[in-house]
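I have been asked to look over a protein record a colleague put together. Alongside the sequence sits a line of tokens, each denoting a local backbone shape. I have pasted the whole thing underneath without changing anything:
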Amino acid sequence: MKQGNALILWSTINNQRQRDRFYLLGFVIMPDHLHLLIIPRGENKISFIMQEIKKGSARLINKSRKRMGKVWMDEYYDHVVRSKKGLAEKMRYMHHNPVKKGLVENEEEHPFSSANPEYERFLFKEW
């Protein structure tokens, strides 16, 4: 994902977070996919949250490219995390992904990752 598109995606995720759709525990925006750890709030379902993130970011990405068309695949994959240990494992895996793919040397260096201290203030820490 291009830097500009990643910024649009982050802005869309943060907008949905600010609308109280979910608590954001962590994220990593990769060139070809997204990792997102969230807790839905209220009556919001993950399917609705993902639809809003994909729809909103696709609209803005297409607008910035002056084009129309599909940006995201229709499906997404979700997993239920049942323990703090499981959550910590998912977080480690997610944050290490940019290192594993050779994008950065250290997790904190990735510009669109909750491992980057720049995003600390956006994260829900009471899990």
Observations:
- The beta strands are 22-29, 34-40.
- Helices lie at 3-18, 46-65, 84-100.
- Residues 21 and 45 are 9 Å apart (CA to CA).
- The mean pLDDT is 93.
